[in-house]
Amino acid sequence: MSRVTVIDYGIGNLLSVARAFEHCGANVELTDDARKIADADYLVLPGVGAFADGMSGLVERGLIEPIKKFAAKERPFLGICLGMQMMLDQSEEYGANEGLGLIPGKVVAIPAVGVDGSPHKIPHIGWNEIYIPSGISWDGTALGETGNQSSFYFVHSFTAVPDHKEHRLADCYYNGQLISAAIKRENLYGCQFHPEKSGTEGLMILRTFLKAKN
Question: How many angstroms separate the CA atoms of 175 and 120, rounded?
Fold first, then answer.
C-alpha cells in the first residue's frame, strides 16, 4: 500500500484530498512534522486561498526546507491548486511573494477579458477541458491514463507561468486565454485543477500518480 503524506499547514482542502487518496487505496497521513515530510514516500501539497497566506503557513511551521529536501530525493510530489502555484519561484498576487522555487516560473492574474476582449468571471470556476501542449507527451506521467480534452474542475484567479515550455504538462483555455492546467519537472507534479473534486477522471490521475517512480 502506498504511503501518502499530505502537508497540513493550516490552509486548504486537506480532508477531501486525503479521502480521495484513501479511495485510491493509499495509506494517508496528514502532518506538519518536518521529519515525516522530508522522509515521505509520496508527498502532497494541497491548498486553496491566497499565495502569501499559504507560504506563511509553511514558513511558520518550518516546512520550506523539508519540502525542498524531499523534492531533491526524486520521489513523487504533487501540488494541487494553490499547492501547484507555490511550487514556482514567485507570485504577483497582492504584491511580489516568494514561492518554493521547485519549478522556475511565476504566478500571474488570469486576464479579466478573453482574447476577443469580452469580459468573463474571475475566478475561473467550473469544469474545463485540458489539452496536451505541442511537443509534450503524457506517456509515463501522472496523466498517462488521461485522455486529451478530458474535463476537470477548476477554482482559481491566478495562473502559473513556467519559464520553460517543457514544464507545461497540460493546458486549458478560459475564453481563449491560455492557462497552465498541470506542470511537471522530473518527479514534481502540479495540478491547477482539483483531481479530488473531478470524479473518476480525477481519481484516475491520483491512481496513476501513485504508480509513478519519478
Answer: 7
**DSSP per-residue string spanning 17-71:** HHHHHHHTT-EEEEE--HHHHHT-SEEEE---S-HHHHHHHHHHTT-HHHHHHHH
Q: What are the boundaries of each domain within the chain?
A: 3-211
At 56, which amino acid appears? S
- Which residues are designated catalytic? 81, 194, 196
14-36 residues labelled b (16+ CB within 10 A) or e (exposed):
beebbebbeebebebeeebebee
Dihedral sign computed on CA atoms, order 137, 193, 176, 88: negative
Amino acid at 184: K
Q: DSSP character for 95?
A: S
Which fold is adopted by the domain 3-211?
A: Rossmann fold (3.40.50)
pTM of the model: 0.96
Grid cell locating 112: 479579466
Q: Are 61 and 9 spatial neighbours (Cβ–Cβ below 8 Å)?
A: yes
- The answer to whether 143 and 182 have CB atoms below 8 angstroms apart is yes
Contact 78/191 with Cβ under 8 angstroms?
yes
Q: Using 50, 70 and 90 to split pLDDT, how confident is the model at 213?
A: low
